[in-house]
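To whoever is on call:

I kicked off a structure prediction for a single chain this morning and the downstream step that reads the tokens threw a length-mismatch warning. I double-checked the sequence; it's 636 residues and nothing unusual in it as far as I can see. Pasting both halves so you can look.
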Amino acid sequence: MSLSKQLLILISALFLMIFSVNFVLSFNNIKSYLEGEAAVHAQDTATSLGVSLSPYMVDVTDPTIETTMNAIFDMGYYQEITLVDVEDKPLVTLKNNQLVEGVPAWFISAISMQSAVANSEISSGWSIAGTVTVTLNPGYAYLKLYEQALSSFYYSLGAFVFSITLLLLVLRVTLSSLKKIDQMALRIAAGKFEKIDSLPWTTEVRNVTTSMNIMSAKIEGVVSGLNNKLNGIGKKLQQDDLTGLSKKNSFEIEMKKLFISDSEVDAFVFLIKIDALASLVKELGSDAIDLFIKDFAKVLSDLAEQETTGYISVYRFVGSEFCLLIQYVNQEKAEEIAKLLSEAFTEVAEKYNKKDIVHIGVAQYDPLGTTSSILLAANEAYEQAQLIGSNSYYIRKGVNRAKDIAEWKTLVFEVIDQKSYSVSYVGEVGSFKSGELLMSDAFMQALDANGNAISIGTFISIAEKFSKIVDLDKGVISEVVEHIKAEKIAYKIAISLSARTLKNSDFRVWLSSLMKKNHAISQQLVFSISSYAVAKEVEVYKEFIEFIHSLNGQVMIKRFETQSMSPEVAKELKPNYIRLARDLGDGVAKEEGKQVFIEAMQGIGELLDIGILAENVKAEEDFECIKKIGIVGASR
């Protein structure tokens, strides 16, 4: 019950109690007063009438007696006037039992009032000639009493209505501030740290508002500090300590962005290996080797900064292995860049008195391939470059995919239309708190005509290219729903959705109907979306997450790291879970930077009510380290 209702009920009860006590006391006082006045009036009338009749009592048959009594009787509210002689023989009796109009019968029956009766003896000479008895009609007293009660009731009702109206106005002003505080607390819980600038005039509420403002500012400072810390640590984790170049994980993320991109992009991967590093290590000291690697990395960085055609990203994979990802260039431009690099590395080689220090393998980006297959092609090109000559390069020519795509399209359509795929459940996430299974991932598998497993990456890519992915996602979701119901599963299942699917209006209508029919298990469906996909279209995914929450479902952002998505964006989206990028759990027990990153994510998760998960933590020491940090759970 709201505070306003409680106050209204309390004040109404107090008012009713005070009014009742006051009304009863006032009513009884007026009643006693009227009864006393009636008794005095009756006695005065009896005495006056006795005096008036005394001269005529010599002859009790004298008509003046009755005339005088009638005159008195007609002038007042009398119920009965009786004159008897000394032997109590009635001489004159006048009666009027008519009730006074304007007084309800229920009031008369509820209120008992005694009729005022008074006697007066009438003397005739020195002897008693008779007795006159006067009985007042109580109707007049009832009328006065009823009018007074009615007046008191209406005045009290008016005062009550006025008081309640005034109270409501005061409560509206006072409680509006409390409502603002309530809304402010909800916004703080949602990660929006606001302040109430207009402080209320009520001292207690003003103090609470001031405290909330202070708390909001402090929490905002904590979250902002954690975000800055995450961004700083995230960038540091993605950068090579010696050269400042991005690590291999950043390359893989950029490749995933290419694969999920709807547009056709011409891109090339340059795999660059320092063949002479082993011999240089024997000849030079560690400081000189570090300087050599920095000089080598500077060649790549300078090229990326100076080249205006295309977009170049530079990475250091391991000690002697570097990589370039060059987008939006044709093969002719790629060969020009490779030639420039070869010449620049020749100059570096001469600086260290070496003739041959590096070879470059170049492979063209294949939208139907995978990151691993493209790197494998680049490595084969590197091996070819070794055979060509010193500091040389080799570009692996792109293949004609028209026939392959047609075959893939036929295969994908057949598999999806006939539902000849299976769904398995992998990546089980255990809860650190309860020790029970929290979640698993739905993984789609399919075989070709020869019974060989189909490359899922290529399969999904073709399905998206030809808008068949929506039917596939519908089929997988239906399989998961039936699996949960058939096996009576209590844990959650994560289902990956493509960007094309979640934007599809027909899919949303279908999903809404499905989840309403299966409301009992709707919270077990966790729709999984990639952080690098979300970062491209934040508003689209924000609206989708709100849509899923309206259906009582849940959402997980997977592969989270600060290179693809800022923590501020995650705070705005408010997913149920965030699953960290796989490499953050690899070697975390020995890398303080990763530990600090996960601890900061856990802090943000607790503040924003988002469950933080880790993925594919293999080493036991890493698993125990993450468990000690206190995130929700992890898969092995």
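Update from on-call: the warning came from a stale cache, not from the record. Cleared it. Sanity check on the structure: The longest helix spans residues 3-53.
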